[in-house]
Amino acid sequence: MALNLVLGPGFGPDAGKNAIIVRALYGLKSAGAAFRAHLASFMRQMGYTLCKADPDLWYKAVTRPDDNYRYYAYILCYVDDILVIHHDSMSVLTQIDKYLPLKPTSVGDPDIYLGAKLKETRLPNGIWAWGLSPSKYVNQAVKNCQTHLTEKLNGRYSIPAKAENPFPGDYNPDTDVSTPLDPECSSFFMHLIGVMRWMVELE
User: Fold this and answer.
1) Is 202 exposed, middle or buried (0-12, 13-18, 19+ CB in 10 A)?
2) CA–CA separation, 193 vs 202, rounded Å?
3) Are 27 and 14 within 8 A, CB to CB?
4) Which of 17, 107, 133, 186 makes an SS bond possible with 181, Cβ 3.0 to 4.6 Å?
């Protein structure tokens, strides 16, 4: 559905012109709070309670009809990613769809959540469980860091092929008197440390 409006003074020379909005607009200061309030309202209507330790987690006591097993069902909501842990996940997603329309192609067994790949795997005791792989996150983080090192730092540094340890064994941050990084470099430095830790664990 298209929306007609007149552009305001914030559009400079285009102010006063007619415009047609053909897709959703984001970026309003109140958009995040409004979405979270809407999400919370229908989650409570569905009987879920917000976890005090994690505001992105909702839980509800349920009973599995097959064997009357009682457990807590969980719904993890992060922006527009929703992960349902329930014996009948599709019925829960159908309920959510009534309040928050979901893309039909995005509804189904999870294959990725928050950048990490998910895969169902069988444990040694025979129980089926979901496994989490950081490979996609690590690959993208490495690409981002390599691009930053090349474009921003003129290739003066490089990411090691194998990271034995993010820091030297004798490193002591209390005695580090090097010049502090600017905010952008600090962000990529933390990304790089995270990548190196994952690389160590993946070895």
Assistant:
1) exposed
2) 14
3) no
4) 186
**Whether 76 contacts 92, CB under 8 Å:** no
Q: How many CB atoms lie within 10 A of CB 116?
A: 14
Contact 40, 62 (CB under 8 A): no
What is the greatest pairwise CA distance in the chain? 69
CA–CA distance from 60 to each of 55, 57, 140, 144 (Å)? 14, 10, 35, 39
Q: Which residues pair with 128 in a beta bridge?
A: 122
- Range with the poorest average pLDDT among 40-49, 51-60, 160-169: 160-169
Question: What are the distances in angstroms from CA 120 to CA 64, 109, 131?
Answer: 20, 10, 6
CA–CA dist 147, 178 (Å, integer):
24
pLDDT digits (tens, 9 = 90+) for 110-126: 887 777 788 888 999 99
Rounded Cα gap, residues 110 and 15, in angstroms:
45
With a cut of 90, say whether residue 68 has pLDDT above it: yes
Nearest 5°: phi and psi at 78?
-130, 105
Give me the mean pLDDT over the 85-103 stretch: 89
The DSSP output letter for 134 is -
What are residue 58's DSSP bridge partners? Answer: 50, 75
